[in-house]
Structure formats: structure tokens, C-alpha cells
Amino acid sequence: MDIVLQQTINGLTIGGIYALIALGYTMVYGVLKLINFAHGDLCILGAYIGLTTIMAGVFSRLDQILLLGVAFLMAIIVVAIAGILLDQLAYKPLRRVHRLSAVVSALGASMLIENGIMLIWGPNVRVFPSGLLPNVSWEIGGASITLVQVMILIGASLLMALLYIFVHHTRLGTAIRASAIDQDAARLMGINVNRVIALVFIIGPALGAIGGLFIGLYYRQTFFTMGWSYGLFAFIAAIIGGIGNIPGAMLGGLLLGLVNAFGAGFISSAWQDAITFALLIIILLVRPSGLLGERIAEKV
Amino acid sequence: MKKIFAYSASATVVGLALGMSGAALAAEGGPLLFGLQFPITGDYAVEGQGVKNGLDLLIEQKNAEGGLLGREIKLIVCDDEGKASRATICARQLVNDSVIGVVGSYTSGASLAAGPTYSRANVIHSSDGTSDELTAKGWKNFFRNDPPNSAEAAFTGDYLVNTKGYKNIAIITDHSSYATDLADSVEKSIKTHNGHIASKEFINAGTQDYTAVLTKIKSVNPDVVYFSGYYTDGGLIKAQMDQLKMAADFVGGDTNQSEAFIQIAGASAPGSVVINVPPPESLPYENAARFLADYKEKYGSKPPSIYTLTNVDGLNSIFAAIEATQSTDFSAIEQWLHNMPAEFEGLTGKMKWDENGERAGSLMAAMEVQPDGSFKIVHQ
Predict the structure, then answer these.
(1) B296, B341: one domain
(2) B225 assigned to some structural domain
(3) What is the CA radius of gyration of chain A?
(4) Chain A within 8 Å of B52 (Cβ-Cβ)?
(5) Same structural domain for residues B76 and B55?
(6) Residue A294 falls inside a structural domain
(7) Over the stretch B142-164, which tens digit does the pLDDT of each residue have?
(8) What is the pLDDT at residue A300?
(9) Are A119 and A41 in contact (CB under 8 A)?
(10) Over 60: is that where the pLDDT of A122 sits?
């Protein structure tokens, strides 16, 4: 029983991170019908910014918790700005043309950011200093859970809950949902769709930056190609949950994390990725629009 | 049409003339070209940059002494990112650049991919790749500059079963050529010593999260986890073993013996044991101490691992062959290296090769990471 519990904790932790990153994909897709391939790299940019802030002498006199808080803040701010710039430069000029152009632009932006990170921070693995968070852990029913894991689980759940409340119970959130359903109708209702898009490119990357910094703190390292691999898994999570659906992204992320952990733990570690992708294929065969995805009526 | 023909004809003639004069110049005494095919970027960039620094230093010192056969030595670097796909591209490039010898690559996978190209082009190929497959190909031009997996596996099996008396051994490996080869050899070695293997698991290198696999291993209560993969994952595995409160010891294969392993494992590093040739600092040779001091002076830090020195030895042995035979002809160099009159005094000890290019004699040791970040030899 304790193995199951341990694998569940492991799976939920990484699942929470996938969920945070998947939210960025799903929100952008919902409003723009565009897969923002550069999103994963923005998230890892958050990890790098956080690391740089922590290592900067300026803040080193701060107490640990405050330092972490500042690191998160800097990561969110810089990545949100990067997200807006990404939209303005790579996607906005292509809004009215064929969707494929925007996809290619997204891939190009992804490579640009990834290699930009490599040029700025170097091609080596960057290690987070140890001792940032106290090395505390607790035993629950035979499984152990560390402070970092608790932080990630609580942080991810809190953020997901906040986002859900924002999207479903505030006017701005309703504006986002309206733009996702039909941009032109939303415009006719008096919603400034351009502002909504900008907002989506702030919230999505901001959540992703927090996810990225969580990755950095959990594994204590970051590397410039991580954006591609985490982005890919988060993208899969978003699709499993139903792309464009916010609770779907959360569910998809957690599910993916659990499948990864249980697949490796109970079936075979060698086939870990194969199991994950097999799950994706099965879900798409049975429910093509994802677990929580809506069947959008075709306009005739 | 006539004008175009005239222009292109004259351009061709001029080009040919320049080319021929260029060739004539080179034949007379241009620089001697050597290649470095290594991961300068990518997962193993730390090792790549260390080797590049080491070779640059060696060449600088050699050129200051007058070069080789009175000619300047030049190094052409190609980044293979540790990947087989890029390795073949690099091999093509370096062969087209007419290098006499190549040092590369760090990973056995990349060395195996590039090997056939160098073999066909008669370019001397020195590599620290430890996969036993490399010397089984019958490549006349191949000279391994460190002990192979089989030597390490024999030592490891004996160490784990006999010296430490572990009763429940768990093996973790990744899918790379080097790691699977080493893990298989270690498994065989453990079995010959009648050791008990509790589980053998795989990880995907570079995916960072190994808690799932480690949790699975924890359930069989191993007293030691042996990891045959690279340091980038080894450090994380050790850290995650502590995170999961596993009571098992960690023993790593040779690539885990590096500064980067200690950095990545962080607070969990002390107590890990790594099996490899002794680290640069504990080499008892005077030339090694001198080279280390020069390296430190030029680059401000220690070399990342022993592989910097083994690869320097690899290139230096080619230099020695050229000087001894007073020629840059492939067969002369290759024959000399295979039938050396006396052992070559490398930084990592005396070097001699058998007809398959296997380095004879191995000085394996088990080293434990100390709290101060150094490696202390605990068994030889």
C-alpha cells in the first residue's frame, strides 16, 4: 500500500507541474485556436529567471522565503512580458492568414527562445544551490513526502482553484470564455478581444513560469532543452483533457503525472514513455475531443 | 551566352590555379590538422569543454616547443552534442578537412557512429568511449584511451559482491550504448561471483524524474543501487534516493566520477561511491601534476574529470607516433602505435595497445565522495 501511496505522491507532484504548464496551452488554444509551441520554452525561461534572481548578489541578503518569493515574482513578470512580446511579434501579424503560418511561427519562436536561453545562460546544466528550502520530509503511511513536494502540490492546487474562480466567476473571466466561444460575437457584445488575448498571454505564461520554477526547485537543476520535453508532455496533457478546456488541462496534467508514475512503477520502467503515449492514443480513439472536451457543432 | 561561358571558364581556371597552389603550399609545410569530435553543447557539455581545454593546452605547449616535425599543430573542433546523428556529420566534416587524427567522442554511441567513417578514411581515432563493441569492429585506426567496460565490470562485480558483501543488488541503466553494455557486463560479473541481483530497471536519460523507478526498486529492499549511466542522471538519482529515504548505498559507473555529479547531487553527494580510474589529483605521475597545474593556471579551474587527461594522452600518443616515425603517413603511425618499442608515458599512466586498439592494463579504483567534494580512493 505504501508503494501505491508513494507513486501517487510522485505522480501528483509532477502532474501538478504538467497541469500548470498545460493551462497555458489550453487557454491560448481556446481563444486563438493556436497551439503555442513556444509555451514550454517560456516556462523554462521562468526557471532560468528564478535561478538568476536567486543567484544574484543583490537579493542574497534576504531571508530564504522572501528570496524565493522575489524569485517567483521576477519569473512571473519577465515571462509574462515575454508572452506578450511573443504574441505581438509572432502571432498577431498572422491573425488573419492561414492557420498553418501561425503554427510555423510558433515553432520558430520556440527554437528562438530555446537557443536564446542557451546563448545567454550557456549550454551546461545549471544547478540550483542546495539548501534553498529546508530538507524536511514527512512519513505518511509508509511513503515519504518532502517539503518541496508539499509546496508544489499546494501551490499548483491553489493556482488552479484561483484560475477556475477567475474564469468562471469574474467579468474578465467571462470575457475570456466568450472570446473562446466566438471572437466575432464577443466583439459584437462589446468585449475588447485584443485585450482578452493579451490577458491570456499574461496568465498562461505566468502560470507556466511558476511551473517552470517549480521544476527547477524540485529537481534543483535546469537545462535549455527542458522546454521542449515539458512542453510536449504538457501539450499531451492538455489534449487528453480536451484542448481549450481549463478544468480539462488540470485533469489531463494530473492524470498524465499519475500514469507516468504508475506506468514506470508497476508495468515497466523501460516502456515508461511508450505507456504514456499509448494512453494518449487510446483516449483520442475513444473520445477524440479529450476527456472533458466539448463537441463543438460544425457550422454548415 | 558567350559572355557567361567566357566568365565561367576563366573563373574555373583561376579557381583551379588557386586550388592547386593551395595544395602545393599544404604539401610543403602548412599546419598539421587534428580533429576533436566531442559534445561541446548538450547534456555532456561539461566534459566536452574540459577536453577541448585540455587539448588546446597540450597543442599550445607543443607548438611553443616548435610544433610537430617543424610544423604548427591545429585543432579543428566539431560539436557532436553527444548524439550519433550529429557524430556522423562531424566525422564527414573532419575527414573532408584532411585531419591526421581525431579525438572523439565522449559517448560510445557517438564514437560507434563516427567510427566507420574514420576507419574508411584512415584517420587515427582515439576515444574514451568504453563500450566493448568499439574494439570488436576490427578497426585498425582505433585506439581507446581509457579502460573498457569489461575491465570496469570485472572490478565492479568483485567489489560489490566480495569486498562490500552486498546481498541485494539493484541495477539501473539507461538506453544508451555505453550504459546498457556496462550494465550487462556488470550483471554477468556479479553472477560469476554468485551475487544476487534484486532488480534491473531502465530510465530515460535526461528526463529528470526517476522517483517512480526508485520507488519500485525501494520495494525490493536493495542494499545497494548500481547505476551504469551518465553523471547527469546519476546525480539526480542519488538526490532522489535520499528524497525517498532509501537506505541503499549508491555505486556509480565511471562517468559518474566528475565534479558535475557532485554538483547535481548537491547535499546527497557525500557517501556515493564511483568506480573508475583514479581522478586527476590522485595520479602519482609528475607529468600529470604539472599538466594539472598548467591547466589550473590557464583556465582557473580543475579539469571536470579524468577523461580530460585520457583524451590528452590519446592525442599526445599520436604526436609521439608522428615524431617517432618522422611521418604523417597513416600506416606508419598505426603500425608504431600497435607495436610500440616501449610503453607511452601518458598523464594517466603507461599506455600500450593490443591489435584491436584496446588499452592494456587498467588501474581501476572505487572512490567515495567526501563532504568536501573530493573523491577518496577506498578500494583498489
Answers:
(1) yes
(2) yes
(3) 19
(4) no
(5) yes
(6) no
(7) 999 888 888 899 999 999 999 99
(8) 52
(9) no
(10) yes
B372 part of a folded domain: no
Q: Report chain B residues whose CB lies below 8 A from the CB of A223.
A: 43, 206
pLDDT at residue B24, as a whole number: 42
Q: How far apart are alpha carbons B274 and B231 in whole angstroms?
A: 10
Residues in B touching A263 (Cβ below 8 Å): 212
Please, what is the end-to-end C-alpha distance for chain B in angstroms? 78
* pTM of full prediction above 0.80: no
Q: Which domain holds residue B209?
A: 150-276
Question: Based on the domain organization, do B165 and B209 belong to the same domain?
Answer: yes
For chain B, give the percent of residues with pLDDT over 70. 92
Domain count across chain A: 1
Candidates B84, B82, B78; CA nearest to B99 is: B78
Structural domains in chain B (count): 2
Residue A243 has which C-alpha cell?
484542448
Cα R_g (chain B), whole angstroms:
23
Cβ-Cβ contacts under 8 Å for A176 (sequence gap 6 or more): A27, A30, A31, A167, A196, A199, A200
- A·B CB contacts under 8 A: 87
Would residue B94 count as lying in a domain?
yes
State yes or no: pLDDT of B360 exceeds 90. Answer: no
Residue B44 pLDDT > 60: yes
Query: Is the Cβ pair B260, A14 closer than 8 Å?
Result: no
- Residue B86 is part of a domain; what is its CATH number? 3.40.50.2300
CB contact under 8 A, A269 and B267: no
Q: What is the pLDDT of residue A287?
A: 87
CB–CB contact B209 A260 (8 Å): yes
Look at residue A181 in the predicted model and tell me its pLDDT: 87
Residues 6 or more apart whose Cβ sits within 8 Å of residue A161: none
Range of the domain at A167: 2-286
* Domain-embedded: residue B270: yes
Q: Is the pLDDT reported for residue B282 higher than 70?
A: yes
> Does one domain contain both B118 and B156?
no
Q: Are residues B170 and B262 in the same domain?
A: yes
Instruction: Give the pLDDT confidence of B233-249 residue by residue, as tens digits.
Output: 999 999 999 988 899 99
Instruction: Establish if B203 touches chain A: CB-CB under 8 angstroms.
Output: yes
